[in-house]
Amino acid sequence: MAARGCCPSCGSAALVEDAHYAQQQLVCAACGCVLAEGLLTTTYTEEEHLREVTYSQSTGQKEQLSRCLQRAFRTGSKA
């Protein structure tokens, strides 16, 4: 992603490539306008290598209902 041109919002030429998040973006350093974004999703071939991970494996904690939901199930009311 080449940092060329100027910002359509403020006209500044201070455009920077920002790869801070999961996708690369072209951002105006003056006003924060996002001019271009990379792909956030995976391709079909990349998905072949993915596998399911349970909540407890990803967090190291046992998955359980909140106390509010547990109370609602016992009493039959809505949470």
Structure description:
InterPro entries: Znf_TFIIB. This is Transcription factor IIIB 50 kDa subunit. It is found in: Nucleus. The protein is of the alpha+beta class and 79 residues long. It has a domain at 1-39. It has helices at 44-47, 55-59, 67-75; strands at 15-18, 25-28, 34-37. It has a 3-stranded antiparallel beta sheet with strand order 1-2-3, with no helix packed on it. The longest helix has 9 residues, at 67-75.
How are the elements arranged and paired?
Blueprint: E1 15-18, E2 25-28, E3 34-37, H1 44-47, H2 55-59, H3 67-75
Antiparallel strand pairs: 1-2, 2-3
Subcellular location: Nucleus
Keywords: Activator, Metal-binding, Nucleus, Repeat, Transcription, Transcription regulation, Zinc, Zinc-finger
Pfam families: Zn_Ribbon_TF
Brief characterization of the structure:
With 79 residues, this protein is of the alpha+beta class.
Largest sheet: 3 strands, antiparallel
Radius of gyration: 22 Å
Overall geometry comes to elongated
Q: What structural class do helix, strand and pairing data support? A: alpha+beta
Mean pLDDT: 71
Termini separation comes to 48 Å
State the strand order across the main sheet.
1-2-3
Number of helices: 3
By DSSP, the count of extended strands is: 3
pLDDT below 50 for ≥5 consecutive residues: which ranges?
none
* Percentage beta strand: 15-25%
